[in-house]
Task: structure prediction
Amino acid sequence: MSSELTHLDRLEAESIHIMREVMADAAKPVMLYSVGKDSAVMLHLARKAFYPSPPPFPLLHVDTTWKFQAMYELRDRMAAESGMELIVYQNPEAKARGINPFDHGPLHTDMWKTEGLKQALDLHGFDVAFGGARRDEEKSRAKERIFSFRTATHGWDPKKQRPELWNLYNARKAKGESIRVFPISNWTELDVWQYIARENIPIVPLYFAAPRPTVERDGLLLMVDDDRFPLAEGEVPVERSVRFRTLGCYPLTGAVESQASTLSEVIQEMLLTTTSERQGRIIDKDGGDASMEKKKQEGYF
Amino acid sequence: MTDPIYVTDALIAEDIDAYLAGHEKKSLLRFITCGSVDDGKSTLIGRLLYDSKMIFEDQLAALEADSKRVGTQGQEIDFALLVDGLAAEREQGITIDVAYRFFTTEKRKFIVADTPGHEQYTRNMVTGASTADLAVILIDARKGVLTQTRRHSFLAHLIGIKHIVLAVNKMDLVGYDKAVFDRITLAYRAFASEIGITNFTAIPISGFKGDNITAPSDNTPWFKGPALIEHLENVEVGAAADEAKPFRLPVQWVNRPNLDFRGFSGQLASGKIKPGDAVRILPSGKTTTVDRIVTLDGDLDEAVAGQSVTLTLADEVDCSRGDVIAAADNPPEAADQFEATLVWMADEAMIPGRAYWLKLATQSVSATVQAPKYEINVNTLDHLAAKTLELNGIGVVEMSTDKPITFEAYGDNRTLGGFILIDKLTNATVAAGMLHFSLRRAQNVHWQATDIDRDMRANLKNQRPALLWFTGLSGSGKSTIANLVEKKLHRMNRHSFLLDGDNVRHGLNRDLGFTEADRIENIRRVGEVAKLMTDAGLIVITAFISPFKAERELVRAMLPEGEFLEIFIDTPLAEAERHDVKGLYKKARAGQLKNFTGIDSPYEAPENPEIRIDTTAMTPDEAADLIIDRLLG
Result:
């Protein structure tokens, strides 16, 4: 029998090794769970890494109250199935001020997500947070370490990151400092999809094409997911067969017109497509060219 | 550019399931590209991504716009802009860190570490190379083998990369001249054999024009070898070799969901394992057999090098994180003194004698490094005498750990031979190392157990041994107070010994000066002497400036918990300088005395000393009483 491991086998083994390594030095780890396909893979890997024990950390969903309904449904189901504690955090100030993507633009992401995440980590005293970011997503992430250090104020200094050699991770830190760990750093979008197919991992149905009520705004197709969506005078949602390549807040996430209703078809469309994954997201384009790098220095995941 | 290797769209469109079935079986090759600033490295990587369709239309549109705005290729596409990530670098037009890129061909999936060519970034290249199976060394055809080429080749070889590709780039700029290519290949071969590289593959390419990247180029009909991608797709890498080695599994985590299950989780560093195989747990040496290989997908019949698994054992043996489960008949050795090659990665130079954390596989121990036997000049490969290693310095050193670690030579096993050193105070990763072998003296010098132990000696004296470690600026009053403490102890019939800084320097430490390294060795020796004396049952009192936290912590770690009492004689610098009984501050201020603490050498005040004496608030006599109260109370 040829026992040569495939690239997916090697990626899986590496991710599991990283998750277990965190347990050696972490006082209070947590897994960030955003309900997207990357989070689905992360949760699955965590269950594999610690089986037969349940993963020895809770899931944290930094909620904006503006996610798709279907995401909330899958989130609650997966938390129950994995036997892990689910912590849902909503920034109380954003809630009180009614911050929303329609009226507040970039402030929406800043307050609900960036600030919300910092508050949640501080509130619970989590010292290590697992995230599902991948190096193939965006240029500044290609240089991100697997163990990424944050100052006590959650800042990221690209010059102060520790060199990572072999599979040796230095997870030592001073009081107040925290680490973001990205176990699927070396996965690509195709790897994630193929692994979901191979392992039969449940994902939000929004990734598959179906007739959905949509309107067109600034070149993006937005789904009218609930009645908070402010329609312009005379604007009527149009039913289109659409799906989503990434999932976030529904008013900020552009759909693509598609007929791909199975995993194979979705992968097929992904491989033949000509635009990159993050293009459907508005967030990258604030502040021009280096916007993700800037967000990261401010503490955005 | 269309090329048969990448015409997969048809298959994807027609039979996606067949495509995915094929793709799922692809293997993985990790490689690094090394070259100097202008060798066209980023351009080559950009080209690989572009040709393998890893660049989408929106990225391409942005690339075209950027190329015109800040590109260096006129109106043509500047592929380098695709891979230069961080904002500051893009403006300077250089890459300053390791970046990882991904692409896939028909046969393989690739992870590329893009590492910079500047001399000051040896650190980054070693980092990128540590996970690579293959290195692509880029040479500008117009310039030939340069100093940087030698450096990159040496580093790739040092880190154990077996497959070297010499990519002679910019062939378009020398008219695709065979003679140029042959001359460079010949020159490289001469150099490579000098450093022990016996085998490499030379390919004439143009990253900019795309020659010999994905397919043989019509511009080089004289070249009969493979195109770059073809070579990368077919080169045999070491997975099979790792499996052929003896079984080793460093234990990462003990899996204990309930009282009925105890599993040991880890990634196989080498070899393979089946239920029923005999294994030995190191360092304890206990033997047992493997009962099950447990995964979420069900038990496995076999696990091989590279897999992450959980093992259960047939017997209840002690085993925890840091232990290594190994083939019973062929276990690795354990030792506490080694020779190793170190690559220094921190701005702060190596300090011989200082204790660092050493992490090797899942083991973490305290380690001290001696002054290098020699440093290697990466440009000339000469061996140079050195007292320390600075950032990007590479040297061969002897080192010792505070307890034995299970290891193998780096050349035999990267996982059990590669390690990092971590600064105990800043937690920064300061060095990468590769173990060569254990030192004979570690193998042959054993601890001699004595019949009378330290408790028996202390009981006879009717006291608990302790080390009262005074620290503070010169002139703060350490010696005065320490002396008073000993006088009072003596009156109370306590057996003590005062080790005074100046006195020790007249004898035991007369060979040491006042450089940072010598001051650390001074403290280390005093610590060892004090430890022997506490073993003898004495209350030891020391009065040394001991300005560095790391050394005070080193001594603390030598003693049993609770026996080290740090006493911080807290006197403001101005106050100490005003006293200046020995006239040393005056000399230091005049520049006649170098490395003087508080003047041109730092004093790192203790954060949580056992006792703090504020000399502006109490007399030496009061201070001595307070210390004795705390010691005996």
Residues 283-290 of chain A have pLDDT under 50 and may be disordered. Chain A has nine helices and ten strands. The radius of gyration of chain A is 19 Å.
